[in-house]
Amino acid sequence: MGNLLKVLTCTELEQGPNFFLDFENAQPTEGEREVWNQVNSVLQDSESILSGLQAYKGAGQEIRDAIQNPNDLMLQERAWNSVCPLVIKLKKFYSFSLRLEEALQSLLECLTCPPFTPTQHLEREQALAKQFAEILHFTLRFDELKMRIPAIQNDFSYYRRTISRNRINNMNLDIESEVNNEMANRMSLFYAEATPMLKTLSNATTNFVTENKTLPLENTTDCLSTMASVCKVMLETPEYSSRFSSEDTLLFCMRVMVGVIILYDHVHPNGAFNKSSKIDMKGCIKVLKDQPADNVEGLLNALKFTTKHLNDESTPKNIRTMLQ
After folding, report:
1. What distance in Å separates the CA atoms of residue 313 and residue 320, rounded to the nearest whole number?
2. Whole-angstrom Cα distance, residue 299 to residue 169?
């Protein structure tokens, strides 16, 4: 347990135990290896997914030309042939979200199951906790990129309109075997979300709780609140943050902290902002506000726009003010 160091005890902070987790070096034990390998097979594709999304240029010009010249078959064909490869790419991103959902549920099973408490799990299974964090880190990165690419929804809308009208014949319609109507419907719902990957993980966590009726809800919410405390302490304590070899790890911690807060807010009946919450929301927001604005704008927006309970009457006004 050398990588996971207790830095505050329960008696020192009402919110519960806080830990420093070495996100850079935690390695799987034999007991973790099987699940770790399964999740790693998903995570190893995450960078290529992000690279593909970052390189997404869209077919805006081709689509505009086709719309402005509806009788020009050459322009119609050019737009269609430009959009089809992009739709295949969008399907790849969507399919990855399903794999990520399965990976998250596998990790939740390991990190919440009896007889150990979530805190004990985080001590015993540091490498799985690190993978949990990596999934959240990827998710926030993906959604930050997606929000800057309006071409995604424009391209997919054009694709669906064109298929529906059936005005183009013999123009790469083989794509329907790749993206049939059912798949297109699911993809449409996915990309309609401002933060589709985060929505996927929120639903996955909620479904995990619903499907595991014999597992106390607190096992899941305590896992999430402890992870939030992990990241908060690392970010606000120079003694711990200075141990990381890369400044990128600080941004990693910020994304993970925001991710687990959002998951907690969706799963817990009272949400993350309630006074009874086990997450120190005021402290977490302060930690974000203390960072360079460029690093945290997207994360603060995620808290404002993708949480479920922020605008509840039970949310303290000073919390809402901090996020304005």
Report:
1. 11
2. 45
Inform me whether the pLDDT recorded for 22 exceeds 80: no
Q: How much helix, strand and coil, in percent to the nearest 5, is found in the chain? A: 65, 5, 30
Of the candidates 222, 224, 315, 317, the one whose C-alpha atom is nearest the C-alpha of residue 275 is: 315
Helix (H) or strand (E) holding 109: helix 73-112
As a whole number, the mean pLDDT across the chain is: 87
40-62 exposure pattern, b = at least 16 Cβ within 10 A, e = fewer: eebbeebeebeeebeebebbeeb
Overall pTM surpassing 0.85 (yes/no): yes
Partnered with residue 21 across adjacent β-strands are 4
Helical (H) or strand (E) element with 298: helix 293-306
Residue 85 has pLDDT above 90, yes or no: yes
The dihedral region occupied by 170, where left means phi > 0, alpha psi between -120 and 50, and beta the remainder, is left
Neighbours of 324 (CB within 10 A): 6
Cβ proximity of 124 and 110 under 8 Å: no
pLDDT digits (tens, 9 = 90+) for 104-156: 999 999 999 988 888 888 888 889 999 999 999 999 999 999 999 999 999 99
Report the interhelical angle of 126-146 vs 33-43 (nearest 10°).
20
Which long-range contacts does 148-154 make (Cβ < 8 Å, 24+ apart)?
Answer: 149/53, 149/56, 149/58, 151/56, 151/57, 151/58, 151/59, 151/60, 152/56, 152/58, 152/90, 152/191, 153/191, 153/192, 154/58, 154/60, 154/63
